[in-house]
Amino acid sequence: MIDTPRHNSLYLPIECEIISVIDLTSGEKLFRVRRSDGVPLSHLPGQFVQVSLLGWGEAPISVASSPTREGFFELGVRRAGTLTGAMHTLKAGDTFGIRGPFGRPFDLPRLQGQDLLLISGGCGLAPMRSLIQYCEDRPAEFGMITILYGARNPADRLFKDELAAWERSARFACSFAVDSISGGDCFSGSVGLITALIPPLHCIPDRTVAVVVGPPAMYRAVIDELHKKGLSSDRIVVSLERQMRCGVGKCGHCTIEHLYCCQDGPVFWLNEIEHLRGAI
Ligand SMILES: Cc1cc2nc3c(=O)[nH]c(=O)nc-3n(C[C@H](O)[C@H](O)[C@H](O)COP(=O)(O)OP(=O)(O)OC[C@H]3O[C@@H](n4cnc5c(N)ncnc54)[C@H](O)[C@@H]3O)c2cc1C
Ligand code: FES
């Protein structure tokens, strides 16, 4: 076992054991994991861990499960390169290291009592799922919850079973979009960009907070549509990705002007960053 109470450095990986691995798509897997020492991860929705594999390095990965689901945490990992490629070869019973949880989570106290508009694209559903599960488990804390999700095509959608369950649930209003479909695809949502799902929504701007997590190309168009619905920038939350190394505000790899994405973010209120060059 790597971690002991004597060794709780920010830089020292803690050993975790994989409980199960399932394929989400042909390029994404979901790892259900627990710390080998049995200590809960104690994260909040929106935070990430630095996953480390000996000989392969480290990569920041968002925690995809809610802290309300106890005894494990989950990581949805896209095979993107070196570390994530090596991770995709792991199976139940294997171990790897994590540092964290790190980063500023979704601002739950400011989300409580509000109607939520949860908008994610592609891999952005992984961190959003942590918040969705949290809302599912604490229904009294939030108003009406709308989930919008966009993906390239039906097969590329993450968490397909959960998307179907959220769609059936009276707790959520859901609309899904894909960029394109091909013959044989079974998909009942919209074909086109996720931005097209926003204009038909009924929302009360001074009672609604929108949370946006997705690929860089999605943010500007989605934010424009949210502004048109009357949502001001202090009612829009974004989670941003930057290249990261240390994850703890020391190396400067993740800066957005004076802000460190790893510590001041990855979650920001839009009014905190919209004036910063290159933030969105
Ligand atoms: C806060 C945060 C949360 C993240 N959460 C997830 C998650 O839940 N699931 C997931 O699959 N991925 C997530 N990522 C992205 C993930 O960290 C990168 O895909 C990963 O670092 C790639 O590591 P690698 O060693 O496999 O790839 P490498 O071999 O290092 O790189 C492969 C390619 O990915 C590019 N790349 C590396 N890091 C990033 C980055 N941060 N943003 C954009 N491009 C990058 C490299 O430039 C290179 O072109 C997150 C990133 C951040 C910053
Ligand atoms: S990753 Fe090192 S300062 Fe943010």
Notes on the structure:
With 280 residues, the protein is of the alpha/beta class. The chain has 2 domains: 14-102, Translation factors (Elongation Factor Tu (Ef-tu), domain 3, Beta Barrel); 108-239, Nucleotide-binding domain of ferredoxin-NADP reductase (FNR) module (Rossmann fold, 3-Layer(aba) Sandwich), CATH 3.40.50.80. The protein is built from 6 helices and 15 strands. It has helices spanning 82-87, 108-111, 125-137, 160-168, 216-228, 270-273, and strands at 14-23, 28-35, 48-53, 57-62, 73-78, 95-102, 115-121, 145-151, 172-178, 190-191, 208-213, 236-239, 255-256, 259-260, 267-269. The chain has a 7-stranded mixed sheet, sandwiched between helices. A hairpin with a 3-residue loop joins strand 3 and strand 4. The structure holds flavin-adenine dinucleotide and FE2/S2 (inorganic) cluster (FES). Flavin-adenine dinucleotide binds next to strand 4, strand 5 and helix 1.
Quick overview of this protein structure:
With 280 residues, the chain is α/β, with parallel strands linked by helices. It has helices at 82-87, 108-111, 125-137, 160-168, 216-228, 270-273, and strands at 14-23, 28-35, 48-53, 57-62, 73-78, 95-102, 115-121, 145-151, 172-178, 190-191, 208-213, 236-239, 255-256, 259-260, 267-269. It folds into 2 domains: 14-102, Translation factors (Elongation Factor Tu (Ef-tu), domain 3); 108-239, Rossmann fold (3-Layer(aba) Sandwich), CATH 3.40.50.80.
